Amino acid sequence: MAHVLRVPKFDLAALLAQQNPHIDLDLELYEHSTRNFLKAVSHYTHTAQAEITRRKNAHTHEKKRLAEKIQSHENETNVCKVKELELIAELDREREERKKAELSAVQLERQLATIREQCSQLDAEIEQKRAVVMDLRRERDRERSILETYASRTAPELLECERRLQCYVEGIEKDKVLLRFTHIDKGNPDREFSVVIDVSSSVYKVPTTSPALPTLPILLDELNETRDVYAFIKQVRQAFEHLVMQGR
Fold it and tell me: Which of 115, 148, 169, 181 could cross-link with 193 by S-S, CB 3.0 to 4.6 Å?
């Protein structure tokens, strides 16, 4: 507790009545009190300065910490803004891709509908073709049956004609007919003379003859002009007979 200096009371009238009035100021006590006061003021000043320095340092440290925290938050905010921009761009891309995908899906659905319609039409055409094929098969079978009937009837006649004409007709390979002639060479009646006729196109061709016929080009041109196969066969036989007469 601080010491309080109390000033003593005195009687002024009594003091003035004295022969030599004198007031004891007690300077030593005053000086002691003044020293204590100055000492207290100095202590307070040092304490205040220390406290001010401490608070200043604490404030500076706190200010630095808050500045660093603010900078950190600003950096995080900038990173978040960059990510936000990237996300917005990604959303825009996804939105555009989705739009394209939807348009593509619509186009594919239209194409699918068109393809289904075409498939339906093709199925109908296939059924029609099947019906036509079945009719053609029945017609072919009917014609084959008729031809087989005719063949069975004409086979004996054909054999008799071949025997009498000494000309034998055979189908070889595809679209080719082999004609074999005998009884041309009187010295060797069994000797065979042959010619192959190619009937694969509208123009008749003769790939080979045995033996070779020098007049074949002329005979072939006449065949293609007249379309008379029977006359051609007759002329070929005569040409072979002419070769035999020439000793070939």
Answer: 181
Residue 212 has pLDDT above 60, yes or no: yes
Q: Enter the tokens of residue 146.
A: 């008729």
Of 205, 192, 199, the closest CA to residue 237 belongs to 192
Q: Are strands 193-198 and 205-210 parallel, antiparallel or unpaired?
A: antiparallel
**Phi/psi at 183 (5° precision):** 60, 35
Q: How far apart are CA 168 and CA 170, in angstroms?
A: 7
To the nearest whole number, what is the mean pLDDT of the chain?
85
- Rounded CA-CA distance 207/162 in Å is 23
- Residue pair 177/171 in contact (Cβ under 8 Å)? The answer is yes
pLDDT of residue 204: 92
pTM over 0.85: no
Sheet holding 193-198, edge to edge: 167-172, 176-181, 193-198, 205-210
Three-state secondary structure call for residue 167: strand
Q: What is the DSSP string of 78-127?
A: HHHHHHHHHHHHHHHHHHHHHHHHHHHHHHHHHHHHHHHHHHHHHHHHHH
